[in-house]
Amino acid sequence: MNINNNIHTDHNNYDIFKWIIATTCLLIAIISNFYFKKYNIFLQIIITTLLILSSILIGLRTKSGKLLLLFAREAYIELKKVIWPTYYETLQMTLIIIAVAIIIALILWGLDTILVRVVSFIINMRF
């Protein structure tokens, strides 16, 4: 029992070390972006991109990163299972939404006109 607990702690410490390295790479990328401003832009882009990519790759090697990859794979599989509407269905639904929006706008415009006339009638009344 004690050996299993020790292995789990070592694995957790290793993940923490990976996160520290990934964060350090990201911070170095940000700092180097400011430092290399006086140098060639191509060099600046290459260094920043490499540091950010290495930070992402190190982060994906942790337990949380592996869970993120597993979630992304499962989401992609579910995305493939979705039955997407055809072009005609999409066009038809869009036209219905536009028609309903126009009808509601006309109703609101009519109510606004009636309310403006009622309020102006009340204001112009003389007692």
Automatic annotation (TrEMBL):
Localization per Swiss-Prot or TrEMBL: Membrane
- Origin species, per record, is Candidatus Aschnera chinzeii
Which GO cellular component terms are attached?
plasma membrane
Keyword annotations for this protein?
Cell membrane, Membrane, Protein transport, Translocation, Transmembrane, Transmembrane helix, Transport
TM region positions: 16-36, 41-60, 95-123
A GO molecular function assigned to this protein is: protein transmembrane transporter activity
Question: InterPro entries attached here?
Answer: SecE_bac, SecE_sf, Translocase_SecE/Sec61-g
The function of this protein is:
Essential subunit of the Sec protein translocation channel SecYEG. Clamps together the 2 halves of SecY. May contact the channel plug during translocation.
Q: Under which name does UniProt file this protein?
A: Protein translocase subunit SecE
Q: Which NCBIfam families match?
A: secE_bact
The text of the family note is: Belongs to the SecE/SEC61-gamma family.
Q: Which domain of life is it from?
A: Bacteria
Tell me the Pfam families matching this sequence: SecE
Instruction: Supply the PROSITE patterns for this chain.
Output: SECE_SEC61G
Q: Name one GO biological process term.
A: intracellular protein transmembrane transport
Q: How does it assemble?
A: Component of the Sec protein translocase complex. Heterotrimer consisting of SecY, SecE and SecG subunits. The heterotrimers can form oligomers, although 1 heterotrimer is thought to be able to translocate proteins. Interacts with the ribosome. Interacts with SecDF, and other proteins may be involved. Interacts with SecA.
